[in-house]
Specification:
The chain is mostly helical. It is 51% helix and 10% strand. A two-stranded parallel sheet has the order 1-2. Strand 1, helix 2 and strand 2 form a beta-alpha-beta unit. It is elongated. The two termini are 35 Å apart.
């Protein structure tokens, strides 16, 4: 994934597409290994990395699964 991300950054630089920051948001931003990879790669290109605090990162899949579990336990239809 790091190689692909850096290919994108190389492409934007070659095409003179202005990029000053990378925003990492949503559930994926909870992944500490991904955060570190994005920060390391972005630093090579002089880009800022903007992320949300971990306590407000949201994993939508986990929320949907939890809701289904709650509905099932309440004997409600989960279809």
């Amino acid at each position: 994934m790091q190689r692909k991300f850096e290919l994108i950054l190389t492409y934007t630089k070659a095409k003179k597409i202005p990029v000053s920051a990378v925003h990492l948001v949503g559930g994926v931003s909870c992944n500490s290994a991904l955060r570190e990879m994005i920060e390391v790669s972005s630093a090579k290109y002089g880009l800022n990395v903007l992320t949300c605090p971990l306590d407000i990162c949201v994993d939508n899949g986990a929320m949907i699964a939890w809701n289904g579990w709650e509905l099932k336990n309440a004997n409600q239809d989960v279809d």
